[in-house]
Amino acid sequence: MIYQPSNRPFNLSDFRERHEAVLETFDSAADLFIFIKIDEADIPGISQVAPFCGGCLVVSWAFYENDPLVIDTRMKPGYPDELFPREDIVKTVKRGGITILTNSGPRRTKINLMTRGGTAMLRMLLGEQPRHNNGLLEEAIESMVKTTRLLQKEMEKDQDPTHDFRKLEIWTRGLIVSLDELEQSWNAARHFSQSVKSGYIDDMSIQEQGEYQRYVYFYKNGFIRVFSILDKLGTVLNDLYDLHTSKVKAHFSYFTVLRQFKFLKAHGELAKELEAIKERYKTPLNTLRKRRNAEIHYMNSEMQDDLWQRHQGLSDKIELEDIDQHLDDLKQGVDMVCRSLAASYKYTNELWGKNGVRA
Fold first, then answer.
1. What is the pLDDT of residues 46-77, one digit of tens each?
2. Collapsed DSSP state (helix, strand, coil) of residue 177
3. Which helix (H) or strand (E) holds 342?
4. 307-311 — which CB contacts under 8 Å span 24+ positions?
5. pLDDT tens sequence across 125-151
């Protein structure tokens, strides 16, 4: 028997077709009532879930004979409608360096980092204009962006059967984001430091103490990120150039990777440039490393100087650290990271170019 509802004909003897037609013609939020339900999201005994027809899933449950399973997945009338950003907000966010891309499907929204301006997240909160990349920062980001384009082209060509290219692409995109976050941390620390005028903590007003604490937060966030990015870069270089650094040290750092380059006498041009960059920034990097180690393993880095002053005189006022010098150390750490990333990815891009890989 052929039955034709308002939309299309179907065969009543075909259960799958009949069931799908029923699902198409009733309002599950209003027409279906569930009297027995299980609220737990993780239900023991389910071994397989597969689509049966449009709008229907089949669930394999170990206890179906004695205990019927009903899963209520309806959209309830009280659920809020899907949210869409106002056009003026979208334009503002785009100016700040974030582009909103909608993938296929109504609920899949992706935030894409714009490499020319970085994200403006903190700058917008601080009432500042979006950053315009230039100098060392632009050089580093553009080198990494070029690498991602080369990788995407190679993946389109052979579908990346070993998944090596897609892993390297994700690593590289992560480094772009991490570098952006590092620069924002330095900028936020600089911003809040400008409101700190007192030379002693005891002389600060409540408002100035708040500004000082915000400066300290972003300053520490910055120097921790310096070494985080370097270690991530070390992981990329180790994998990219088959250095096998983990055989030397299971949990290796960026500096272990540099020594491995030298030990293996591999990619001497890159190794020499990275070593020169490290030596150029040796003094500020050692300072930042000591503060990072103290912060993570010993005590809050900003309180080390307080402890030293307490040793000199228990009743003396605590003099503030040299904030300008600390910010300069961090800025040099940012520059060192930028130069190391740019050198590594430029070398890689040129090497691939010689082997015929073009964006």
1. 667 777 776 677 777 666 666 666 655 555 56
2. helix
3. helix 323-354
4. none
5. 888 888 888 999 999 999 999 999 988
Q: List the chain domain ranges.
A: 2-61, 135-354
3-class DSSP state of 25: helix
Tokens of 171: 């690593």
pLDDT of residue 114: 43
Q: Are 308 and 315 in contact (CB under 8 A)?
A: no
Can you tell me the distance from the alpha carbon of 186 to that of 219, in angstroms, rounded to the nearest whole number? 6
How would residue 116 be classed by pLDDT, with cut points 50, 70 and 90? very low
Q: Which of 209, 178, 183, 187 is nearest to 196 (CA)?
A: 209
Question: Rounded distance, CA 287 to CA 138, Å?
Answer: 26
Answer whether 187's CB lies under 8 Å from 123's CB: yes
Q: Are 224 and 295 in contact (CB under 8 A)?
A: yes
Taking the C-alpha atoms of residue 306 and residue 47, their distance in angstroms, rounded to an integer, is 60
Q: How would residue 163 be classed by pLDDT, with cut points 50, 70 and 90?
A: confident
What does the alpha-carbon distance between residue 101 and residue 24 come to, in Å, rounded to a whole number? 31
d(CA 354, CA 117) in angstroms, rounded, equals 30
DSSP for 134-164, please give it.
Answer: -HHHHHHHHHHHHHHHHHHHHHHHH--TTSH
- 109-113, 198-202, 302-306: which is most confident: 198-202
Buried b / exposed e along 242-265 (16+ C-beta atoms within 10 A): ebebeeeeeebebbbbbbbbeeee
- ∠ CA 101-105-110, rounded to 5°: 25
